[in-house]
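Structural prep section.
Before we set up the soaks we want a predicted structure of the protein with guanine in place, mainly to decide which crystallisation condition to try first. Input record follows.
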Amino acid sequence: MSAKIIDGKEFAANIRKKVADHVTRLQQDHNLTPGLAVVLVGEDPASSVYVRAKGKATREVGMNSYEHRLDADASQEAVLALIDKLNSDPAVHGILCQLPLPDHIDEPTVTNAIVPEKDVDGFHISNVGLLATGQKAMVPCTPLGCLMMLRDHHGSLSGLNAVVVGRSNIVGKPMAALLLGDSCTVTIAHSRTKNIQDLCRSADILVAAVGRPEMITGDWIAKGATVIDVGINRIPAPEKGEGKTRLVGDVDFASAVEKAGAITPVPGGVGPMTIACLLANTVTACSRANGLAEPEGLTV
Ligand code: GUN
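Run finished without errors. Recording the tokens verbatim:
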């Protein structure tokens, strides 16, 4: 039997609708419009595409979007000065500095310069610590989206075996912390893990976040497991014509769909959830900054 396909596009549209409703309430009842500032240093083409998409999605839910583009050779001091200005701007409730940054800029220094209350990426060391200790934090967008989909599919996650493949600061580690917070038994697997296939086969929930195209095949997956594929990899697709490419996940969808109980596709699974959760975090930050009730169903 083929797995249930978890539709991230539809799920993300529901989140954006909830965010838009909350924005309307903040405007009508409190004369407040949430604002998100996005900082891009340099002209990395992929980052430019993401930043444009984030700005568009922000405006579509009725929030203010502020884009700040700095030259690739901008000094670290210039980036920090801009962040300082945004930190003290009352119209800005969320700040995001698009990664990766040019080599001459120290990422942790910049990430930790954003005040934790406006850190809608959840990358500030204070938010990392709050999440790790089970306290109220700004939660990184991609793992937040994954958790929302898992809760929706399973109801309670308590007692389930979760294996997270990948140990990045952006996805793997915060994902593990969130699953632990929901009382899963959590293992993080990575490139040095022994018997990784056996380990994956022990998972009720398998989260793939390694950035290796179609690494996880159906024979790594227990019958009926839930598979969340965070990977977005572009690979050659000669069948579509010379020089053409296609997007695939870290999971080999064709074989996995025959074993899993539920699975997120690529594209159309986790991807759309990331920007939706960024909007959710921004409206949450605005509500918290003004001492107002947090939006329902948009935080953990
Ligand atoms: N670059 C790739 N993913 C992300 C993300 O989630 N946030 C930021 N700021 N940069 C990224």
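Observations: The two ends are 33 Å apart (CA to CA).
Flagged for discussion at group meeting.
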